[in-house]
Amino acid sequence: MVVQSTAEAITYPAVGAELDIEGVSHAFDIDGATLPVLDNVNLAIAPGEFVALLGPSGCGKSTLLRLVAGLEKPRSGSLREDEVRISGPHPSRVVVFQDPTLFPWRSVWDNVALGLEAQGILKTQRHRVDAVIELVGLSSFRNAYPHQLSGGMAQRVALARALVNDPKILVLDEPLGKLDSLTRIAMQAELVALWQRKGFTTLLVTHDVEEALVLANRVIVLSDRPARIKADIAIARPYPRHRGDPYLADLRKQILGLLGLEATW
Amino acid sequence: MSTYSVSDTTAAAAPRAALTFSHLSGSYGVGLAASLAWLAFGLSCLYWPDLGDWSRTGSLGIGAIVIAAFILFGTLSVDYLGSAGQALRKRAPWLLAFGAFVTLWEVATAKFAWLPLPFFPPPQSILEVYTDDLPKLLDSVFASIKLQLGGYIIGATVGFVTGVSIGWSQKIGYWVHPVLRFIGPLPATAWLPIAFFTFPSSWSASTFLIALATGFPVTVLTWSGVASVSSAYYDVARTLGAKPSFLVLKVAIPAALPHVFVGLFMGLGSSFAVLVVAEMIGVKAGLGWYLQWAQGWAAYANMYAALIVMSLLCSGAITLLFRTRDRLLVWQKGVVKW
After folding, report:
1. B76 and B104 housed in the same domain
2. Which residues of A touch B332 (CB under 8 A)?
3. Which residues are bridge partners to A52 per DSSP?
4. Total domains in the fold of chain B
5. Which end is more exposed in chain B, N or C (fewer Cβ atoms within 10 Å of the end residue's Cβ)?
6. Which of B240, B257, B259 to mutate: most A Cβ within 10 Å?
């Protein structure tokens, strides 16, 4: 199965979709007051790009992801996937949240099968579920329930649940944020390997600068709320990247400076 | 995985290692005492003459001695009986306590009348009810089960559907919620007088009341269960391509199920109360009616006998409900064992 998907990636290198965010502003109404969260965000992401969104806590990164996922509509501006306006959620844009949010009443297999079941194609596509569970290395846990899994395993299941839909855009909302640092490093490597193999466009929200630098080939730094794009940094370094790379260390200092933390570093 | 196997082997090795003399005499001791208690019960039946006229004293005494023999045999050969032996060893203290209790009961009623007699019938008179009045008692049991089951299933179904609807749809909630608040808290028994003359038969009236008593807690808890489902589950399902019907059937309902079972449990309790009252007042069948009838004839033994059967039935119904829940909710950790 793994071999097959590698072959696929070679035949169709660009399964990822293009994502255009144009003049998007958004706000929330809280207790009668309007709280602006996004301010005229413009971002064009090429097919297959791995883009990391960095920004201070509460700046509106996750809101931007919810708009991309189609879970909410922007107050103004537009978002387009391959030139088609995003008007609601669609399995071609799957989100992996910070909490794995596995359905506790479903086994690992049934959790991963969720998307195919919801789309009514599970009967003919069961092999895809098996393949993706194998891909994330959880074959021996396919019948386990979520409460029996560790945090890292649960997040892998969440990743498998997204990947089984063959998304064109994978939206990651701090998916490794709650993991311990060892599991985190291991899963960062897995994430890069999956992205390279599958070729989907990836949009990652994180507040870990190092994570953004190790994973992404483009880092977007957002300002405080309401979020605007402060910097757009291309990271032309080959994978696998090394955390000690002086080039990355230099970028890290620069980005922390943009986030207002230069004094400490 | 490996930790499980390790703890399994230690658990298996523990009893073997703990086969010391004191442990042995302790576990045998309780079993032997239990056997003696039942022997005492049997002998107390046979030794003293009855103060009243009861036909089953002899068979009860012999039965008790047979039980005593079984306990003795089971205790002595506990290591050869496998799981049955373990079960007996675990229950030995209860067998002892129960044997002592029935002995005391026998002596205090049939033999020396320390307790006033017609109101406190001896064990043999209850046995007599079970043997001699069995057809009538069984009829009552079946009538009760039929009535209870019909009302409960209707009430639980209507309650579940209503709860899901008002938890899911604000429009339905707008109309149903005030009605629920007005009618729900009313004890179902308060409807008795009205129900018995508005419904065509006392049976349909009772079914309605049992359904009402069941429906209210089921509705409220299903509703709160559906309403408290985390929106993150819906977000996940929606991004994976779920339609509204999928969100209700495969997200809201399974997530609400633990609450639903609390409602079903509470509904069961309050419907038992309504069942008995309805049977005592209007329905001419069932255990409630049997109790009422027995009281009319001052047949106190029949009342106790019916009470015991009723208790077993109610407890059995709750056990059945909890078993169903455990089966459906295996994914939950640490559910209460009944």
Report:
1. yes
2. 104, 147
3. A204, A219
4. 2
5. N
6. B240
Tokens matching residue B313: 């039935």
Looking at every residue in chain A, the average pLDDT score rounds to: 84
Nearest to A97 among B232, B237, B333 (CB): B232
- Tell me: the pLDDT tens digits for B7-22? 444 444 444 444 444 4
Asked whether A157 and A146 are in contact (CB, 8 A), the reply is: yes
What band does A17 get if pLDDT is binned at 50, 70 and 90? Answer: confident
Q: Which domain range does residue B17 map to?
A: 2-118
Q: Quick: pLDDT tens for A40-93.
A: 888 898 888 999 998 887 778 888 888 998 898 888 888 888 888 888 888 888
CA angle B15, B20, B22 (to 5 degrees): 115
Asked if residue B244 is part of any domain, the answer here is: yes
Question: Do B138 and B112 fall into the same domain?
Answer: no
**Which segment, A190-199, A252-261, B60-69, is predicted with the most confidence on average?**
B60-69
Indicate whether B53 and B155 sit together in one domain. Answer: no
What chain A holds in terms of domains, given with CATH numbers, is 2-264 (3.40.50.300)
**Relative orientation angle of helices B123-132 and B134-168, to the nearest 10 degrees:** 90
Question: What's the half-sphere exposure (Cβ side, CA atoms, 13 Å) at B186?
Answer: 12
- A120 CA: distance to closest CA in chain B (Å): 9
With contacts defined as CB-CB under 8 Å, which chain B residues touch A93?
A: 239
State whether B144 and B286 are in the same domain: yes
Name the interface residues of A facing B (CB cutoff 8 Å).
Answer: 69-71, 89-91, 93-95, 97, 99, 101, 103-107, 114-115, 117-119, 145-147, 161, 165
β-pairing, A84-85 with A76-81? antiparallel
Contact list, A138 vs chain B (CB under 8 Å):
none
B327 interfacial to chain A (CB closer than 8 Å): no
DSSP category for residue B334: S
B323 and B254 within one domain: yes
pLDDT for B336: 55
CATH number of residue B177's parent domain? 1.10.3720.10
Closest CA–CA distance from residue B236 to any residue of chain A (Å): 7
Same domain as B289, residue B211: yes
Q: Which residues are paired to A54 by β-bridges? A: A206, A221
Quick: pLDDT tens for B107-148.
899 888 899 878 898 898 889 889 888 898 899 999 999 999
- Residues of B (224-253) whose Cβ lies below 8 Å from A: 230, 232-233, 235-243, 246, 250-251
Does residue B27 sit in the same domain as residue B113?
Answer: yes
Tokens of B70: 């079984």
> Above 60 in pLDDT, residue B25?
no
CB contact under 8 A, B239 and A114: no
DSSP A16: P
Q: What is the pLDDT of residues B190-235, one digit of tens each?
A: 888 888 889 988 889 999 999 999 999 999 999 999 999 999 999 9
Among B118, B143, B174, give the residue marking a domain's end. B118
Asked if residue B333 is part of any domain, the answer here is: no
Tokens of residue A73, six digits = 């509509």
Q: B235 vs A91: CB contact, 8 Å cut-off?
A: no
Q: Given this model, what pLDDT does residue B166 score? A: 93
Residue in A91, A99, A118 nearest the CB of B246: A118
| 3-state DSSP percent of chain A in helix, strand and coil, to 5 | 35, 25, 40
* pLDDT for the residue numbered B164: 94
Confidence band for A14, pLDDT divided at 50, 70 and 90: low
Mean pLDDT of B183-193: 88
Do B113 and B141 reside in the same domain of the chain? no
Distance of CA B181 to the CA centre of its chain: 30
